[in-house]
Amino acid sequence: MKKFEEETIHTEKIYDGKVVKLQVDDVILPNGKKSKRELIKHPGAVGIIPITKDKKIVFVEQYRKPLEKTLVEIPAGKLEAGEKPEITAIRELEEETGYTTNSLQFVASFYTSPGFADEIMHLYITDNIVPLEHEVAGDDDEFVELIELTLQEAIQYVKEQRIHDAKTNYAVLYLQTLERM
Questions:
Q1: pLDDT (tens digit per residue) in 128-152
Q2: Where does 45-110+124-180 sit in CATH, by number?
């Protein structure tokens, strides 16, 4: 066994939902003791940083039930089975914003909550967005409003915690870093 690796000796499936699967694993720790790990299995997701011709970032504002509040976020969504992240990124951009692009640049991939979930987020950026000619139907249970902000306005939203999720904070920090280089 590797230095920090835990050996799974039993897995109990708890829930198999539309977005996540929950399980509890019994493990043997590196020191030989037993423990339990509560895990969330997730298919992965994408986030997109769409930038308009006049250098504004397109965000969506939406209500987040787990937080019982509204957040301003970059467009994002869950990978469908077998779907490449680039395809998901364009689909989510179209569904959530009414824009499309033929030019995506990969930024990074990162785990969102590695202490209990395996969700990986793939982040893309595009500064070549154009309005769709025809509206694309989004999810029936998703209600969003577009907000276009300058980088400085986005930084202020972070300070005010109107932007308060990891992927969007990452996106704003990434753009802020680009400005300094």
A1: 999 998 877 666 777 889 999 999 9
A2: 3.90.79.10
- Contacts (Cβ under 8 Å, ≥6 apart) of 122: 44, 45, 46, 47, 85, 88, 89, 106, 109
Closest CA to 95 of 132, 138, 124, 55: 138
Domain limits, the chain: 7-41, 45-110+124-180
Q: How does residue 179 score in pLDDT terms, banded at 50, 70 and 90?
A: confident
Question: Are 69 and 98 within 8 A, CB to CB?
Answer: no
What is the SS3 assignment for 86? helix
Question: Can you say whether the dihedral through the CA atoms of 147, 164, 127, 87 is positive or negative?
Answer: negative
pTM for the model: 0.91
pLDDT digits (tens, 9 = 90+) for 72-112: 999 999 999 899 999 999 999 999 999 999 999 999 999 99
